[in-house]
Amino acid sequence: MPAVDMGALRTRAPLAAVAGFASFLYGWILGIKKAVHTDKAPAALGPYSHAIKVDNFVHVSGCLGLIPEVLKNMGEVLKASEASYSSVVETTILLADWNDFKKVNEIYAKYFPSPAPARSIFQIAALPLDAKIETGCIAAL
């Protein structure tokens, strides 16, 4: 393994971090983001996109539905975003009934290959259209 010049690394690493953040900030300020839409998933219920692509990530809006249906809808949005279940790095799940937790885990495991993405899951009082579940995600491109 070649030797690493730690002095050069220490002086260049902060510059690389600043350059990366500056690139992100530049894209954010200029609005360099791309909306994603697909006819293969239910239409948005409000003024939002199915997903937004920015930098090397896609941020998928919450998909409503029944438990297996919601992951299929999310898959269609991922596909339209040129991503897949295997590129998902984080999910957020909202449940109308905590008793569905075990069922969600069983179905979730069938869609997401190992290593499974990071996940947050919450029970909430209600979801639009009396849905049982809503899930959104972030995927790497």
UniProtKB/TrEMBL annotation:
SUPFAM superfamilies: YjgF-like
Cytoplasm is among the record's keywords: no
Keyword Transmembrane helix listed: yes
Superkingdom of this protein's organism: Eukaryota
Keywords annotated in UniProt: Membrane, Transmembrane, Transmembrane helix
GO CC terms: cytosol; mitochondrion
Pfam families: Ribonuc_L-PSP
A molecular function GO annotation: deaminase activity
Alphabetical list of InterPro entries matching this protein: RutC-like_sf, YjgF/YER057c/UK114
Transmembrane segments: 12-32
PANTHER family: 2-IMINOBUTANOATE/2-IMINOPROPANOATE DEAMINASE RIDA, 2-IMINOBUTANOATE_2-IMINOPROPANOATE DEAMINASE
UniProt similarity note: Belongs to the RutC family.
Name of the molecule in the record: Uncharacterized protein
Organism, scientific name: Malus domestica
Lineage of the species this protein comes from: Eukaryota, Viridiplantae, Streptophyta, Embryophyta, Tracheophyta
